[in-house]
Design a protein that fits this description.
alpha/beta; 46% helix; binds adenosine-5'-diphosphate; binds magnesium ion; 5-stranded parallel sheet; Rossmann fold; elongated; single chain; 2 domains; 8-stranded mixed sheet
Length: 419
């Protein structure tokens, strides 16, 4: 049997109150938890005993029944109220609804009408409480599964410095105390692990070969820990293994990995392919690494056009100009003018970069005083603390649009950009 409806009765007239309570006696599904005769006690009791329904006389004092209902509804989550009045006017009915009561009954109350009104009110209360419970559960779950900031480093041109940027960015973010993952999605020729001086025993290939479903704990077994404090999911060791990794595998890896870190940085191959598109859709930010040369700028233009087709919000795409000080007769400002977009960060050209790479070192850490390391530190700062422009807003905006969203929308025959 269902728990009885818990009712608080607050009516000033003792006679009316007694009459109402008498009608409710013997109703197994309604339990009168308290009877009071003034508005102060009514409010206090409602807050203390949290009834499902309050039955209020408009005759209450010092505050009348309408005001008391307004106060109780505001302070007791999920409660429903029914009013009773002698000779109610049409204005009273309107007022009752305005303050949030479900019903206004005329005194003397008809037993059947009273029971029906209380049961209806109880149903509404139950519905409201269930909804509140659901919202609370959802909020708790959202807090538990905090999602990482998702950064994908990309360009359609090889050798622009994607891996250089991705590895140093991961290290710089880890240096702030954040939990950071680096995923090498350059599945055929990924060299992030080598650049980091790591010798992976297992890679993303072994993970997706061995398991069809995985959680964070399992995934972390396939990651290598870098001494700088971040974890790397390496690219396959052999190029032919790459084709055995499916789009769905990449999606699953990204969806799981984002729940266990503060930042996930993804390195990519220099072309659009479905597994890269999954990552681009998934990302909060895409760092477009470009060089200071005409082919690079042409590539950038194409990328922007393609990504425009994917309906990504502008703020998702950030241009990183690498080797920005090269004396090649082209200025950063000219590139900005040509593209109609600002460059988010510029990194100088330095022989230290390939030197660090060859030593399996991270320039940001091994030569922190160098110009390039300082510029890298500036780039890291874009994603941490107050420098990071409204990450929640960006994340929300970033979840709009997307290549895969468009594709499935198309196959559904609706022309929209649903994501
Ligand atoms: N700012 C820079 N100054 C000098 N050399 C650089 C710079 N950035 C990248 N390089 C060199 O360019 C080559 C390609 O860099 P890499 O990060 O592997 O590019 P990608 O991943 O885009 O193919 C590497 O040898 C690297 O050392
Ligand atoms: Mg690379």
């Amino acid at each position: 049997m269902r728990a009885p409806v818990r009712l608080l009765v607050a009516i000033a007239s003792e006679q009316v109150r007694a009459a109402v309570v008498r009608e409710l006696q013997g109703q197994a599904d309604i339990e009168t938890v308290m009877e009071v005769g003034d508005s102060t006690s009514a409010l206090r009791e409602a807050e203390e005993s949290r009834p499902d329904v309050v039955l209020m006389g408009v005759d209450l004092e010092p505050e009348d029944g309408f005001e008391t209902v307004r106060n109780i509804v505001a302070r007791v989550p999920g409660v429903s109220a029914v009013l009773v009045a002698v000779n109610p006017t049409p204005a009273d009915f309107r007022k009752a609804l305005q303050v949030g009561a479900r019903d206004l009954l005329e005194v003397p109350v008809d037993k059947k009408e009273l029971l029906a009104a209380l049961r209806r009110a109880a149903e509404v209360s139950k519905g409201k409480r269930n909804t509140l419970q659901e919202i609370a559960t959802q909020l708790a779950q959202q807090q538990e599964t905090k999602i990482a900031k998702r950064i994908v480093v990309f360009s359609t041109k090889g050798g622009t410095g994607k891996t250089f940027v991705a590895t140093n960015l991961a290290a710089g973010l880890a240096n702030t105390g954040a939990r950071v993952a680096l995923v090498d999605l350059d599945l055929q020729f990924g060299d992030a692990a080598i650049a980091l001086g790591l010798v992976p025993q297992r890679t993303i290939y072994d993970l997706v070969q061995a398991y069809t479903e995985y959680d964070l704990t399992l995934l972390e077994e396939f990651m290598v820990k870098h001494p700088a404090g971040f974890s790397v999911l390496p690219a396959p060791l052999y190029p032919d293994e790459a084709e055995r990794i499916m789009t769905a595998d990449v999606q699953a890896v990204l969806d799981v990995i984002q729940t266990g870190f503060d930042y996930v940085v993804v390195d990519t191959p220099p072309f659009f392919e479905e597994r890269v598109l999954v990552a681009l859709d998934w990302a909060d930010h895409v760092l477009l690494v470009a060089g200071l040369d005409i082919p690079s700028v042409k590539h950038l233009k194409t990328v922007f056009r393609t990504m425009g087709l994917m309906a990504y919000p502008e703020e998702k795409l950030l241009i990183i100009m690498n080797r920005a000080d090269s004396k090649v007769g082209l200025e950063v400002s000219e590139v900005e003018k040509h593209l109609g977009r600002r460059v988010k960060a510029a990194l100088s050209s330095s022989v230290e970069v390939p030197r660090a790479l060859n030593a399996g070192e991270l320039l940001l850490l091994s030569k922190p005083g160098s110009k390039v390391a300082k510029e890298l530190a500036q780039l890291v700062k874009v994603f941490v603390g107050s420098d990071h422009e409204g990450s929640a807003k960006v994340a929300e905006a970033a979840s709009r649009g997307g290549f895969l969203g468009r594709k499935s929308a198309k196959t559904n025959g609706s022309g929209s950009n649903g994501s």
